[in-house]
């Protein structure tokens, strides 16, 4: 039990009379990358919110070792949520400023980080001057700037074109492995889930339940997500999960 | 056809594309400046035609200059007023009263309005009070304010601030309440306490509405100061208008009203300047198309 960064036990969530999630139990081992896939509205975002401590379950328990400890959580949403009035450097510094780092120190650290996320040369650009991919890069840099021990990702790449998405997946994995943290990602893209995760959780909808759990070997190989998609057995996992969601 | 050429041209990569985008941006800025210039020329042309028609009608005897004044008489009044310095000192008095009232009213209004974001309870307690104040004709309060604040400059400043404060408050509060809830959630998940969310997010999110409040209240501040002068004063444009009105001196009333209009244009211009300075990122977005 000590090795679980996050553990949900028999969790049910209701919104009024509507049961969004029912009897869900799973664990995220420390250092693992877990993905949640499932049909729209099955309660994936609800689960992430629960893990982050925003909102509680109707019944069951949610254990989050990081929330109980030093609270180093990075939450990334489908929308980049950049602040329009802040430049890239200032937006990336927001995470640190939110935690109370003095403004100048936060911005200095942010400026150091930008090259790692491919944002060199865009330091003083405002969000309205950036492409969708660049905006999401900035959002990712902001999320990682606080060196989170737990990364919560809610469809972070779903608004991007395929190429940008593959590139950002590779960068995400690289930074994630180096950080030594734990990650939970929600995605609609089964390919993406199989390519980047150690564990894929398949959910069914109305009410949201866990339909299947797969341990996936590809991410552990350390290959970039593009090449992993070519690996033997990759298609098998994707098809299996696809069928589980369909049924 | 230029459009055909543009369509068939392959997308140019890198710096070339950036350069083209910059050129297009300059084009857009140029077009905007040109359209503003055209609008100003049209304004002036219409104004001249209107004044000429008015003057012609008066000269032909079909409109009485006693009842309606005339451009010539107004002009003479202005020249006389500036020559004696009376009109200038009146304008300065009114402008200062309105400016100080404008600043005080907006500072109080915006501070309270944004601050209400903090407490749902206080906001709901104040809601009927704000509705009540918003429906109170400030002119009706003027005699009471004179009694409280005296007949000097401070009562006019109070009148001006009172005319401004509710509008400023409501706009600032709307701005604060309009903060993106997902952005609030993001900061909360990063571990920011409420007061820091307020400083980093809610306050800057409200700036756009607060600037809107500045623009809306510029005219209100002037009206408030002038109503104050109507009730009791020995100087200011409102004083001059009151005296001239009681003497049925139409050209003087109109001449002073024109000065009031010019003051409001100047105040609006200054607010626009300030807005462009504060909301620089917003104007970047607009010109970026
Ligand atoms: N605050 C709320 N009040 C009422 N119902 C809610 C609320 N939040 C979510 N729901 C409902 O709970 C269900 C699960 O929502 P959730 O956002 O977790 O789905 P999701 O799996 O993330 O969907 P998507 O893939 O479309 O993002 C949905 O049917 C939604 O309508
Ligand atoms: Mg969702």
Word description of this protein:
- The complex is a heterodimer of chains A (about 250) and B (about 290).
- Chain A has about 250 residues and is of the alpha/beta class.
- Chain A has two domains: about 5-70 and about 150-245, Rossmann fold (3-Layer(aba) Sandwich), CATH 3.40.50; about 85-145, no CATH class.
- Chain A is about 35% helix and about 25% strand.
- The radius of gyration of chain A is 18 Å and the shape is globular.
- The longest helix of chain B has about 45 residues, at about 15-60.
- Chain B folds into two domains: about 15-60; about 70-285, Orthogonal Bundle (MetI-like fold), CATH 1.10.3720.
- Chain B has 13 helices and no strands.
- Classes of the chains: A alpha/beta (about 250), B mainly alpha (about 290).
- The interface of A and B includes residues 53, 54 and 146 of A.
- The site of adenosine-5'-triphosphate has 10 residues of chain A, from strand 2 and helix 1.
- Adenosine-5'-triphosphate (ATP) binds near residues 18, 20, 42, 44 and 45 of chain A.
Spell out the blueprint of helices and strands:
The complex is a heterodimer of chains A (247) and B (289).
Chain A: E1 4-15, E2 18-29, E3 33-37, H1 44-52, E4 59-64, H2 65-68, E5 73-76, H3 88-98, H4 103-113, H5 132-144, E6 150-154, H6 162-179, E7 182-186, H7 190-196, E8 199-204, E9 209-215, H8 225-228, H9 234-246
Parallel strand pairs in A: 3-7, 3-8, 5-6, 6-7
Antiparallel strand pairs in A: 1-2, 1-4, 8-9
Chain B: H1 2-8, H2 14-59, H3 65-68, H4 71-84, H5 86-115, H6 120-134, H7 138-149, H8 153-177, H9 181-189, H10 194-231, H11 237-246, H12 250-278, H13 280-288
Helix pairs in contact in B: 4-12, 5-8, 5-10, 5-11, 5-12, 7-8, 7-10, 8-10, 9-10, 10-11, 10-12, 11-12, 12-13
Bound molecules: adenosine-5'-triphosphate (ATP) and magnesium ion (MG).
């Amino acid at each position: 039990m000590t090795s679980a960064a996050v553990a949900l036990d028999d969790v049910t969530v209701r919104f009024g009379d509507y049961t969004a999630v029912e009897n869900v139990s799973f664990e995220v081992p420390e250092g693992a990358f877990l993905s949640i896939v499932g049909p729209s509205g099955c309660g994936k975002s609800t689960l992430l919110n629960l893990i982050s401590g925003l909102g509680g379950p109707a019944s069951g328990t949610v254990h989050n070792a990081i929330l109980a400890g030093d609270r180093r959580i990075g939450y990334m949403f489908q929308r980049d949520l950049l602040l329009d009035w802040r430049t890239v450097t200032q937006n990336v510094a927001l995470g640190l400023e939110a935690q109370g780092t003095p403004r100048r120190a936060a911005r200095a650290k942010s400026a150091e980080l930008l090259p790692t996320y491919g944002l060199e040369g865009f330091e003083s650009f405002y969000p309205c001057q950036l492409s969708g991919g660049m905006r999401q890069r900035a959002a990712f840099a902001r999320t990682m700037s606080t060196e989170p021990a737990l990364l919560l990702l809610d469809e972070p790449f779903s608004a991007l074109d395929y190429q940008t998405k593959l590139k950002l997946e590779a960068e995400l994995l690289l930074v994630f492995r180096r950080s030594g943290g734990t990650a939970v990602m929600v995605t609609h893209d089964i390919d993406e889930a199989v390519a980047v995760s150690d564990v894929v959780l398949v959910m069914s909808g109305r009410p949201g339940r866990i339909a299947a759990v797969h341990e996936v070997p590809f991410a552990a190989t350390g290959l970039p997500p593009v090449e992993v998609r070519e690996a033997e057995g990759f298609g098998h996992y994707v098809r299996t999960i696809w069928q589980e969601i369909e049924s | 056809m230029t459009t055909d050429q543009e369509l068939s041209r392959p997308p140019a990569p890198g710096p070339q594309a950036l350069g083209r985008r910059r050129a297009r941006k300059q084009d857009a800025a140029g077009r905007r400046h040109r359209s503003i210039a055209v609008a100003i020329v049209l304004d002036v042309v219409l104004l001249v035609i209107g004044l000429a028609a008015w003057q012609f009608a008066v000269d032909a005897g079909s409109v009485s200059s006693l009842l309606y004044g005339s451009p010539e008489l107004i002009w003479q009044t202005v020249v006389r007023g500036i020559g004696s310095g009376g009109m200038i000192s009146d304008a300065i008095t009114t402008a200062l009263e309105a400016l100080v009232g404008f600043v005080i009213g907006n500072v109080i209004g915006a501070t309270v309005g944004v601050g209400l974001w903090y407490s749902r309870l206080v906001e709901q307690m104040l809601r009927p009070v704000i509705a009540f104040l918003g429906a109170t004709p400030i002119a009706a309060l003027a005699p009471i304010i004179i009694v409280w604040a005296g007949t000097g400059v401070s009562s006019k400043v109070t009148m001006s601030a009172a005319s401004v404060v509710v509008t400023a408050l409501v706009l600032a509060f709307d701005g604060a309440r309009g903060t993106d809830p997902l952005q609030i959630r993001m900061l909360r998940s990063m571990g920011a306490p409420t007061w820091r969310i307020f400083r980093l997010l809610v306050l800057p999110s409200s700036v756009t509405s607060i600037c809107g409040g500045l623009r809306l209240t510029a005219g209100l501040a002037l009206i408030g100061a002038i109503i104050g002068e109507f009730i009791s004063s020995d100087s200011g444009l409102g004083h001059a208008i009151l005296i001239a009105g009681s003497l049925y001196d139409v050209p003087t009333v109109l001449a002073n009203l024109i000065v009031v209009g010019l003051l409001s244009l100047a105040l609006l211009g200054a607010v626009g300047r300030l807005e462009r300075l504060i909301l620089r990122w917003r104007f970047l977005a607009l010109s970026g198309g």
